[in-house]
From TrEMBL:
GO MF annotation terms: ATP binding; CMP kinase activity; dCMP kinase activity; UMP kinase activity
Location of the protein in the cell: Cytoplasm; Nucleus
Protein name in UniProt: UMP-CMP kinase
Reactions it catalyzes: dCMP + ATP = dCDP + ADP; UMP + ATP = UDP + ADP; CMP + ATP = CDP + ADP
Positions contributing to a ribonucleoside 5'-phosphate binding: R98, R119, I120, V121, G146, F147, P148, R149, R189, R200
Function: Catalyzes the phosphorylation of pyrimidine nucleoside monophosphates at the expense of ATP. Plays an important role in de novo pyrimidine nucleotide biosynthesis. Has preference for UMP and CMP as phosphate acceptors.
Subunit architecture: Monomer.
Organism: Panicum hallii var. hallii
Amino acid sequence: MWRRRLGALLLRSPPSSSSAAASSCQHHRHHLLPSEEPLALNRLARLFTSQAGSDGGNSQKPFIAFVLGGPGSGKGTQCTKIASDFGFAHLSAGDLLRHEIASGSEKGELILDIIKEGRIVPSEITVELIRKAMETSSANKVLIDGFPRCEENRITFERIVGREPDIVVFFDCPEDEMVKRLLGRNQGRVDDNIETIKKRLKVFESLNIPVVDYYSSRGKVCKINATGTADEIFEAVRKLFSSLRF
Ligand SMILES: Nc1ncnc2c1ncn2[C@@H]1O[C@H](COP(=O)(O)OP(=O)(O)O)[C@@H](O)[C@H]1O
Ligand SMILES: Nc1ccn([C@H]2C[C@H](O)[C@@H](COP(=O)(O)OP(=O)(O)O)O2)c(=O)n1
Ligand SMILES: [Mg+2]
């Protein structure tokens, strides 16, 4: 109930104009006086405490953070840093799909065709890969990077894994910056060309933003300003993760 009330509060607050790397959970900050901030962050941390945490609940359940943002917003870069500093397992939906392609399976061929066109792979395939990776990992805190990409992804995950995330980290980055980063990524990816990038950006706006809106309404989204250097952005990320109890 309180989560829903918090979500409504978040939705009502106007967007923040805070500077780079200083914007973790900026929706909440909008309501705060500077001196209130640490206390409020602690309160927020308790709200985001894992179902596996100190609540005496089911200790088998890992803390799950979905990591969202447009293509090139820096999800992978920041997840690597979070994994290293906070001991999270890092599951990248895109990497799992690319591994399937590399395996040479029939499913991999289908995935390749879809990724080349900047479209989204059928949810059952992606969720099954994520579910298996989670099962294999013994980590009690997991970053799921680049997922859910659409409402169908989200609903399928909830159905198959039977869970919602504890938190959703959203990297907010202007389109021109994302395009610049993708064109400079140089990893030989079939989808990092301007034609496919344009399609991916459209898909992001039309299918992924509704997922962010959904989780905002559930009070689960922490938005990070993803402009600036990777280290500057990680300062905001570090602040956020330091305030969580998992
Ligand atoms: N803050 C940043 N400033 C400039 N380039 C960045 C930044 N963060 C990441 N990059 C680079 O941009 C590209 C896309 O980053 P990546 O982490 O792969 O994003 P995503 O997983 O969201 O697509 C990579 O080449 C990465 O090295
Ligand atoms: N949940 C997902 C994640 C990725 N995909 C597909 C479609 C995406 O354009 C590609 C690449 O995803 P990836 O997360 O690696 O891409 P970015 O890190 O955002 O550049 O994979 C998908 O269909 N469903
Ligand atoms: Mg990525």
